[in-house]
């Protein structure tokens, strides 16, 4: 039997950073989610949301799907919706990188761009209005339990397996919060002493994939009790760490990954020993039209 594309979502590599951490008693392990077929960690959630909705009968061919996205979820949804012969409209701010928009369209999705001034919140408002007034259905990644359950079923178990249960700290960027919610739930069931660390931007910093949500837009799936600590990073810190990852570790990733690794290194400075696992969310080729690697 041969594997399909969907069979290759997950089981991504977990690699040790070789230069970033100087303390030999601390291991920094990077989970390379860019190795998913759609190029990001969002393949996991997109597949679980669509497949679970189909299995329940919540959606079927002919259902008009719409989803607000900052990029990676949209690419994953476009890819997987196409495989299931579903039509989907993806809504994102007009300042999103050209590569992201073109990739979604290549997979067959309709892409609608909203004002960059209103950010992803404006995209969410647009999608919600279409759901309320025009009969569309949203998977609602921000409030859909199938988002975080994807990581409970896959990401958490993979990390536990590949560290031999020796993980002491898990560090993750916080966007929709699905990754950190699901992985935290699994790891805490295995060992309640594993520390879960979320990453947020400092005030006035803009880091794609990492958000500090206004209260009215806080994802419904977020449960603050599942995060032990939050570390903030600035836009400049995240950008510089992203470039360092490429130069020093050979890991070509996006800015949210740089932010997560920056937070992991801040954490490492407070420890005498430990095994820190950090999510590398996607690949850097989605940001070449930006000034990130200029």
TrEMBL record:
Alphabetical GO biological process terms: cysteine biosynthetic process from serine
Pathway in which the depicted protein is active: Amino-acid biosynthesis; L-cysteine biosynthesis; L-cysteine from L-serine: step 2/2
Catalytic reaction equation(s): O-acetyl-L-serine + hydrogen sulfide = L-cysteine + acetate
Domain of life (superkingdom): Bacteria
Cross-referenced InterPro entries: Cys_synth (IPR005856), Cys_Synth/Cystath_Beta-Synth (IPR050214), CysM (IPR005858), P-phosphate_BS (IPR001216), TrpB-like_PALP (IPR001926), TrpB-like_PALP_sf (IPR036052)
PROSITE patterns assigned: CYS_SYNTHASE
Reported cofactor(s): pyridoxal 5'-phosphate
Modified residues (N6-(pyridoxal phosphate)lysine): 42
CDD domains the UniProt entry points to: CBS_like
Enzyme Commission number(s) from the entry: 2.5.1.47
A GO molecular-function annotation: cysteine synthase activity
UniProt domain Tryptophan synthase beta chain-like PALP: residue ranges: 7-282
UniProt binding sites for pyridoxal 5'-phosphate: 72, 175-179, 256
Keywords per UniProt: Amino-acid biosynthesis, Cysteine biosynthesis, Pyridoxal phosphate, Transferase
Keyword Transferase: yes
Protein family according to the UniProt entry: Belongs to the cysteine synthase/cystathionine beta-synthase family.
Protein name in the entry: Cysteine synthase
Organism, as annotated: Sinomicrobium pectinilyticum
